[in-house]
Design goal:
This protein is α/β, with parallel strands linked by helices. The chain has twelve helices and twelve strands. The protein has helices spanning about 15-30, 70-75, 90-95, 100-120, 180-200, 220-230, 250-260, 280-295, 325-330, 335-350, 350-360, 360-370, and strands spanning about 5-10, 30-40, 60, 80-85, 130-140, 200-205, 210, 235, 245-250, 270, 275-280, 305-310. It has a seven-stranded parallel beta sheet with strand order 3-2-1-4-5-6-10, with helices on both faces. Helix 1 links the parallel strand 1 and strand 2 (about 30-40). The longest helix is centred in the N-terminal third of the chain and has 24 residues, at about 100-120. The termini are far apart. The structure holds nicotinamide-adenine-dinucleotide (NAD) and thymidine-5'-diphosphate. Thymidine-5'-diphosphate (TYD) binds near residues 92, 223 and 279.
Length: about 375
């Protein structure tokens, strides 16, 4: 038996969103044992969790989610009754170059976690009672929406303007376009199949683009903040007209906490910021904020904007309707975008060492090669 009230494996806890989820759970639930299971790929960084690494209710285990035997041993060793699954290959551009790694980690890795959980939980007298397998997914599985209001129009459900009539709902048909979203869609189907076939208590959530501290600087916002600081070009794909719905990462972690504890088994919840932005507009906000905080004159870094060849199969618009989560479980984003982006830019500027440790190594070589190939 375990001394803790709950024993939860969080996979991918050394990554961007995972580190916020681990921090929230370790701080908020001292009576839970949080086991952070991460392979530490290029995207995993234990520095993200320095502030909680010595807590008595926290354990880090370096392991691959594809290692079915190891996962089974860990579940037994720690009496695991909950899994919050975030580990994944997560960058669309990488998936275009190397789809096999995405199928391996996102599909086979999820399947191996599911099967290990199934065998362990089915071996217990109480079987699935009190257990939970919570799979974190993306809105990208739904494909892309039309840009029917290119100038933006007033939203009926949020304070922010929207760029189309349609939204992704929990019932929207899956239509993934990139190898990344195809691999996530496939993993979502496996999770639901384990509920429908074996009765495993699963939950799936699909979230919009996250932003905030500790995001790996291959993604738009941290990459551009760092490039502005170093007066490097800002590669805008295509015309910069694509629309994304942005959510502050701590709000995503809060949603995960709510859904893990109160979500309905076998259900799906969409999580979003009600916060649509065209890439070029968000890029201008980032430039303005970084320039102001660095003491540069307004407009100083606008000349860094460099239009480059578009991403292959670039989805035009993502927009999540998270009304169900709001109505059923009472969650809504806590931060206005202006506040979130200010906090985010300040964090990256104040934590230059974190950024330099990443960008001074292998990643820099990879990044340079990405742009040589374009
Ligand atoms: P990330 O790339 O920052 O982190 C991924 C983590 O998973 C890293 O710590 C990495 O080491 C670990 N990992 C990768 N392969 C592994 C393996 N085989 N075994 C064990 N660990 C492994 O990703 P993120 O942006 O934090 O995304 C986390 C999850 O949330 C993903 O499942 C992603 O699909 C989903 N998601 C992300 C966003 C977003 O905007 N970033 C939005 C919606 C959903
Ligand atoms: P990204 O952060 O990679 O997230 P996702 O592809 O999962 O939405 O990209 C966000 C948007 O920014 C997307 O439309 C692609 C675009 N983008 C650029 O224009 N330039 C860049 O260098 C990057 C990384 C992204």
């Amino acid at each position: 038996m375990s001394d803790f009230k709950r024993n939860i494996i969080i996979t991918g806890g050394a990554g961007f969103i995972g580190s916020h989820v681990v921090r929230l759970f370790v701080n908020k639930y001292p009576d839970y044992h949080i086991i952070n299971l991460d392979k530490l790929t290029y995207a995993g960084n234990l520095v993200n969790l320095k502030d909680i690494e010595d807590r008595p209710n926290y354990t880090f285990v370096k392991a691959d989610i594809c290692d079915f035997n190891k996962i089974g041993e860990l579940m037994k060793q720690y009496h695991v009754d909950g899994i919050i699954h975030l580990a994944a290959e997560s960058h669309v551009d990488r998936s275009i170059k190397d789809p096999f790694t995405f199928a391996q980690t996102n599909v086979m890795g999820t399947l191996s976690l599911l099967q290990a959980a199934k065998l362990y939980w089915e071996s217990l007298p109480e079987r699935y009672e009190g257990k939970r397998f919570y799979h974190i997914s993306t809105d990208e599985v739904y494909g892309a929406l039309e840009l029917t209001c290119p100038e933006g129009k007033k939203s009926e459900i949020s304070a922010h303007e929207v760029y189309g009539e349609e939204f992704f709902h929990e019932t929207t048909k899956y239509q993934p376009h990139s190898p990344y979203s195809a691999s996530k869609a496939s993993s979502d189907h496996f999770v639901r199949a384990f509920h429908d076939t074996y009765g495993m208590p699963t939950i799936v959530t699909n979230c919009s683009n996250n932003y905030g501290p500790y995001q790996f600087p291959e993604k738009l916002i941290p990459l551009f903040i760092n490039n502005i600081r170093h007066r490097k070009p800002l590669p805008v794909y295509g015309k910069g007209e694509n629309v994304r719905d942005w959510l502050y990462v701590v709000d995503h972690a809060r949603a995960i906490d709510t859904i893990f504890h109160h979500g309905k088994i076998a259900d799906t919840y969409n999580i979003g910021g009600f916060n649509e932005w065209k890439n070029i507009d968000i890029i201008k906000v980032i430039i303005k904020t970084v320039d102001r905080l660095l003491g540069n004159p307004e407009g100083y870094s606008l000349d860094l904007i460099t239009y480059v060849t578009d991403r292959a199969g670039h989805d035009l618009r993502y927009a999540i309707d998270s009304t169900k989560l709001k109505n059923e479980l009472g969650w809504k984003p806590s931060l206005q975008f202006e506040e979130g982006i200010e906090k985010t830019v300040r964090w990256y500027l104040d934590n230059q060492e974190w950024m330099d440790n990443i960008t001074s190594g292998e990643y820099e070589k990879y990044y340079e090669s990405m742009y040589k190939d374009r």
